[in-house]
Task: inverse folding
């Protein structure tokens, strides 16, 4: 399947890529006599009245009066650049259109004001920035906030899943977090933003932290937060996703395996690897036999029937209480 | 059944309004048509809607009727859990007036109130000059009692999948809780250079559950009471300037978790055999878990752009959670110690404490020279847990003969993880960006292993992984974007058998605007992981390997700008295969576990809109829904079709109804199947 995919993509994209590479790298610079100057927003409003009216209800409208950003009376031109030439020629090519720019250039426009804000700490470390997803891919600069039919969470999720289609599919599985999707009547408690910061964060997958640097899952599952007297190490080294599939699963409790014993035996395999015995490097943790139960007996097949405090225990090292 | 009158009333009211609207004289229609004809080009020219009123609101209320759940109610409640009756499905109110002196704007949004499992309330209010307040409240019902969790093969001899036998051999872990989350943030002087802020968060849970009590020689499923809460208080200040930003935040958390069991029911537990002719049992139990904890945390975050070609960020995060725990249990019955010593009463008293200083830092810089950008970043996380516990146990063999023992244990968990990544980006043209990068991940961990001897030494683990990255972003035409990213990793050491080790990962995402009304999306994801470190020196074949693939296609079609309706649809085909070996604990024989999952998922919604002349806004019929059909280790079918009808009688009043079907089955575990029909009817009124 992969080979076919690569072949198809290769056929489709190679000529387009080659065509693009062959083009001159930069746009021709405007002539010296055409250097535009700033007009003001009133000039823009004369032709783009409907946009301007809507823009008046957008947070960016604040620039019209905000002394901090130094764009008073020039809110439109703060993103679109000086508009004198465009106001004379009425040509779309005589004004900057951020949506038509390369993502890095479009982002530069937005980040002129937004870069030095807490939201963007770690932005350059995010998958979106690395994949050249421009701010305008998600944010609409002119529109006021609309009354979404199914609420804010639904609007956010629709935005995210328009690109992350396979993630949306995971949420259609029976055991999933209550994310608002098309088929989730009444389950609109969560949005993607509850766990992820699309602008970037220190953990992988743009995951959010809770309370400084605790795993984001603990924000809602605070009963699992600990610290425990006896920790279950994978909770701290690899996180909840070492056992759970947070986007959705066919297995109960969003586990990655249908039976708990298999979930446990993947790590507690009874295979004493080299590292675990201290002989040499190269092994994995947790392989030393934890017990000698006969897991063919129903009584021992579900490990968490006894090892019930599997996320960590304050009482018993084997998580029995 | 009590929802039927509400449904009928809603339908009657809707019908009356429809009739009223339909009975209006026809001469108004040409004017309307003319107005529409004039308005349509303007709307097409403008990418933004025009909103004039400072205050807008909608209320969406109705009722849900459920046909009854055929099949397993516990599974229905664990998966869907919608209830019937009158509901407030939604309420939205927005006010915006930039010229006002006191309150420039507020919004209130409430969803799914009236007994639904997930209810939300969101409030924002601001004076753009002085303050901004946001509050978010959610109440979530967390019910989980799946019979098959997590040992679906447990049956007594002679029983079948359709009749699995008494619950004793099924799930003994269940929850019926309501979890509530509150977040309140107050920002002062928003939009200024120096912005102080305060915040409060609370997460709590209350409810009941089922949990086993593990005693000597047997374990007894008992009902438990659960109650926990965590309150977070925070305050900080942001300094936002043109070339740099600094945020300093200090916070604190108080935490408590109470779990208790009180039972006087005679319980024979899971043990099916006698112990030297004696039947073990639990007569009564009083168990209490009291956890009290707190934490302080500090955050410092900064960004800076000292030159136009250099942008940097850094953050330091520190937290120090700690807990103090008191645990007591008092169990009466017949228990066995070792092989032959029977006792009637066991008492335990424990005090434990854990302290967990945790510091993290990350930083990075982006250097841009012409069309080339270089991005460096690092992340470090250091986590140390030190704990101690003092346990006193007293066993009463007869009313007068007892034995007491005291055990002191101390434990330690140390994890240090680090990551460094460098990426180079080259904008070959306005439409084409190349990317290449390298990531190094390393760390070490000292953990208490799950070993037979609990007092043995810690295990030491190491992590060393190198990852090469390549990517391309291509935007050939307006409205189209293709992004591909490939990672190849090689690890010298990883922590666990299941960790990502020697893997390669490919992601392709594409979006193509084929026509002004038709957009296609494409996703492909491949992850192939092999962990040679999972093998021991004798069995090279014990390495763990897994691979997953998912290919998705999405379509969005809005002909005539949605005038006659629209179609959205997504389809995903996914494959997952995991293959590993382990030694069965009882005889240490090599066994193989193969987990496979092949899934087809589709979601679609066809919205058909009749011409507006029929009614004020034009009726809409919606057909669609979603399904998941999976095969493999746990075959699953989950169908959720929808048929909906929306009738706008007035520019501000709309009657709607929808029918949904929930059908769930897992052929291997037939006793978990359920199906149900729900009908929702309501009115949406705009104010």
Result:
């Amino acid at each position: 399947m992969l080979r076919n995919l690569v072949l198809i993509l290769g056929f489709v994209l190679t000529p387009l890529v080659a065509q693009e590479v062959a083009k001159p790298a930069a746009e021709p610079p405007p002539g010296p006599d055409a250097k535009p100057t700033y007009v003001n927003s009133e000039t823009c409003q004369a032709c783009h009245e409907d946009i301007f009216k809507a823009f008046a209800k957008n947070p960016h409208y604040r620039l019209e009066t905000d002394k901090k950003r130094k764009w008073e009376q020039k809110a439109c031109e703060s993103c679109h650049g000086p508009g004198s030439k465009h106001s004379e020629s009425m040509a779309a090519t005589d004004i900057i259109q951020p949506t038509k720019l390369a993502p890095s250039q479009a982002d530069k426009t937005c980040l002129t004001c937004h870069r030095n804000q807490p939201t963007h700490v770690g932005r350059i470390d995010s998958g979106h920035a690395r994949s050249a997803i421009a701010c305008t891919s998600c944010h609409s600069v002119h529109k006021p906030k609309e009354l979404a039919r199914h609420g804010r969470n639904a609007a956010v999720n629709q935005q995210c899943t328009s690109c992350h289609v396979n993630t949306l599919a995971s949420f259609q599985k029976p055991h999933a977090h209550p994310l608002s999707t098309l088929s989730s009547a009444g389950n609109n408690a969560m949005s993607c933003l509850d766990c992820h910061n699309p602008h970037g964060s220190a953990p992988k997958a743009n995951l959010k932290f809770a309370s400084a640097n605790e795993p984001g899952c603990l924000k809602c599952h605070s009963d699992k937060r600990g610290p425990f007297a006896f920790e279950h190490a994978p909770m701290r080294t690899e996180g909840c996703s070492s056992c759970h599939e947070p986007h959705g699963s066919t297995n109960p409790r969003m586990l990655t395996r249908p039976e708990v014993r298999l979930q446990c035996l993947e790590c507690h395999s009874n295979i004493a690897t080299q590292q675990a015995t201290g002989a040499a490097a190269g092994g994995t943790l947790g392989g030393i036999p934890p017990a000698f139960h006969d897991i063919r007996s129903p009584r021992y097949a579900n490990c968490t029937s006894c090892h019930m405090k599997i996320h960590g225990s304050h009482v018993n090292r084997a998580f029995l209480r | 059944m009590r929802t039927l009158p509400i449904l009928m009333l809603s339908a009657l009211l809707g019908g009356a309004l429809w009739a009223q609207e339909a009975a209006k004289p026809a001469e108004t229609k040409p004017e309307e048509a003319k107005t529409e004809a004039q308005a349509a080009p303007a709307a097409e020219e403008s990418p933004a809607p025009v909103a004039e009123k400072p205050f807008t609101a909608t209320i969406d209320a109705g009722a849900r009727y459920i046909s009854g759940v055929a099949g397993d109610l516990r599974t229905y409640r664990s998966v869907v859990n919608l209830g019937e009756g009158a509901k407030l499905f939604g309420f939205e109110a927005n006010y915006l007036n930039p010229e006002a002196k006191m309150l420039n704007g507020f919004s209130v949004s409430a969803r799914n109130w009236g007994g639904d499992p997930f209810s939300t309330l969101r409030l924002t209010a601001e004076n753009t000059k002085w303050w901004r307040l946001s509050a978010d409240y959610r109440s979530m019902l967390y019910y989980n009692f799946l019979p098959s969790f997590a040992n679906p093969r447990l049956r007594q001899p002679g029983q079948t999948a359709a009749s699995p036998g008494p619950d004793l051999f099924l799930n003994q872990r269940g929850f019926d809780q309501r979890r509530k989350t509150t977040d309140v943030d107050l920002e002062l002087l928003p939009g200024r250079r120096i912005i102080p802020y305060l915040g409060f968060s609370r997460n709590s849970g209350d409810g009941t559950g089922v949990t086993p009590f593990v005693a000597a020689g047997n374990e007894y499923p008992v009902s438990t009471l659960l109650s926990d809460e965590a309150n977070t208080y925070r305050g900080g200040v942001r300094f936002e300037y043109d070339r740099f930003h600094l945020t300093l935040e200090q916070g604190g958390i108080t935490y408590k978790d109470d779990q208790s069991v009180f039972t006087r029911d005679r319980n024979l537990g899971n043990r099916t055999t006698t112990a030297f002719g004696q039947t073990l049992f639990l007569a009564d139990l009083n168990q209490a878990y009291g956890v009290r904890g707190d934490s302080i945390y500090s955050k410092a975050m900064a960004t800076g752009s000292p030159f136009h070609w250099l942008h940097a960020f850094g953050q330091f995060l520190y937290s120090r959670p700690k807990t103090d725990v008191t645990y007591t249990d008092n169990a009466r019955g017949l228990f066995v110690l070792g092989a032959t010593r029977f006792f009637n009463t066991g008492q335990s008293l424990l005090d434990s404490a854990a302290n967990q200083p945790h510091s993290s830092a990350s930083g990075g810089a982006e250097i841009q020279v012409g069309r080339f950008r270089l991005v460096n970043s690092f992340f470090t996380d250091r986590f140390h847990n030190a704990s101690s516990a003092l346990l006193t146990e007293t066993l009463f063999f007869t009313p007068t003969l007892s034995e007491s023992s005291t055990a002191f244990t101390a434990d330690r968990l140390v994890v240090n993880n680090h990551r460094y990544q460098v990426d180079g980006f080259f904008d070959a043209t306005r439409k084409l960006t190349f990317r290449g990068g390298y990531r190094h991940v390393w760390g070490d961990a000292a953990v208490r292993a799950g070993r037979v001897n609990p007092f043995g030494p810690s295990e030491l683990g190491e992590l060393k992984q190198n990852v090469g990255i390549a990517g391309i972003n291509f935007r050939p035409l307006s409205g189209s974007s293709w992004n591909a990213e490939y990672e190849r990793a090689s690890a010298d050491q990883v922590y666990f058998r299941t960790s990502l080790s020697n893997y390669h990962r490919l992601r392709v995402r594409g979006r193509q605007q084929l026509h002004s009304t038709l957009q296609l999306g494409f996703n492909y994801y491949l992850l192939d992981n092999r962990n040679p470190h999972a093998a021991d020196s004798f069995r090279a074949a014990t390495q763990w390997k897994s691979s997953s693939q998912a290919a998705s296609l999405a379509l969005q079609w809005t002909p005539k700008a949605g005038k006659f309706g629209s179609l959205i649809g997504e389809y995903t085909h996914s494959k997952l295969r995991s293959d590993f070996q382990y030694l069965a604990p009882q005889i240490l024989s090599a066994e193989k576990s193969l987990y496979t999952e092949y899934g087809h998922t589709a979601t679609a919604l066809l919205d058909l809109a009749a011409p507006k002349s029929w009614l004020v806004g034009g009726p809409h019929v919606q057909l669609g829904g979603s399904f998941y059909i999976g095969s493999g280790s746990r075959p699953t079918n989950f169908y959720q079709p929808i048929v909906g009808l929306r009738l706008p009688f007035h520019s501000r009043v709309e009657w709607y109804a929808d029918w949904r079907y929930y059908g769930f089955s897992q052929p291997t575990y037939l006793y978990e199947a359920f199906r149900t029909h729900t009908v929702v009817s309501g009115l949406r009124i705009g104010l």
